[in-house]
């Protein structure tokens, strides 16, 4: 995958996750600083965890000023124009699904380039995709969506598996990454719209 495409995917995912983080902050009535913090946390946490796991320190999101700039721009846009953003149908989930797909394939690709095997690459792809959402939810005292939301980590898993399968088959990385991101987004969005969830354990009382 070319460096320019990696940067494009990274910044697109950063913007999408930053919007989702900022919208959650606005809905929880945080002030401007809180909105910007949540925007950056949602956008950068997954990539920071990935880079630390790969030994790529300091993480690129803390070194390259453009990541903070994209997050701040998304946070300011959401803070001052949140009414317009909210008019979109399920805006937090939409931007979250976009970021999930982009970061899952990007994290997997970076892991493969670093020499990790298929399983490790898939795990890091999932971590990159879900990490920002987990930190965002924890900061507003919510149970992370990955633990209860419709096929969240499973969608990231699908995107990561597509990238690994394409790498093993020596397919062109760019089309494979696009397909992986699109399939991840489609699965996540269909799960939201149709309420697809993994089974939840039933307690003893509910079974009676």
The N- and C-terminal alpha carbons lie at a distance of 54 Å
Tell me, what's the shape? Answer: globular
Order of helices and strands: HHHHHHHH
How would a textbook summarize the main sheet? none
Count of DSSP strands:
0
Total count of domains: 1
Continuous helix count:
8
Helix content: over 70%
What would you report as the Rg, rounded to the nearest angstrom? Answer: 17 Å
Structural class: mainly alpha
Q: Strand percentage, roughly?
A: under 5%
**Average pLDDT number:** 88
Low confidence ranges: none
Task: Write up what this structure looks like.
The radius of gyration is 17 Å and the shape is globular. Helices cover 76% and strands 0% of the residues. The termini are far apart. It is mainly alpha-helical and 208 residues long.
Topology, pairings included?
Blueprint: H1 3-27, H2 32-54, H3 60-63, H4 65-86, H5 91-113, H6 118-139, H7 152-168, H8 173-194
Short description:
This protein is mainly alpha-helical and 208 residues long.
Q: What are its keywords?
A:
single chain, globular, mainly alpha, 8 helices, 208 residues
């Amino acid at each position: 995958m070319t460096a320019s495409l990696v940067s494009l995917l990274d910044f697109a995912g950063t913007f999408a996750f930053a919007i989702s983080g900022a919208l959650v902050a606005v809905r929880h009535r945080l002030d401007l600083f809180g909105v910007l913090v949540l925007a950056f946390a949602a956008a950068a946490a997954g990539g920071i965890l990935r880079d630390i796991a790969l030994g790529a320190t300091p993480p690129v999101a803390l070194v390259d000023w453009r990541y903070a700039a994209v997050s701040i721009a998304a946070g300011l846009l959401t803070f001052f124009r949140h009414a317009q953003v909210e008019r979109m149908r399920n805006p937090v989930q939409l931007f979250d699904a976009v970021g999930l797909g982009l970061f899952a394939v990007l994290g997997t690709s970076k892991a493969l380039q670093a020499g990790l095997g298929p399983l490790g690459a898939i795990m890091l792809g999932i971590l990159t995709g879900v990490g920002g959402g987990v930190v965002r939810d924890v900061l507003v005292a919510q149970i992370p969506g990955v633990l209860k939301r419709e096929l969240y980590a499973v969608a990231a898993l699908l995107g990561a598996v597509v990238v690994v399968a394409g790498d093993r088959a020596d397919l062109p990385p760019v089309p494979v990454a696009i397909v992986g991101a699109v399939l991840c987004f489609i699965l996540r969005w269909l799960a939201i719209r149709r309420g697809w969830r993994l089974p939840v354990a039933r307690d003893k009382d509910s079974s009676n």
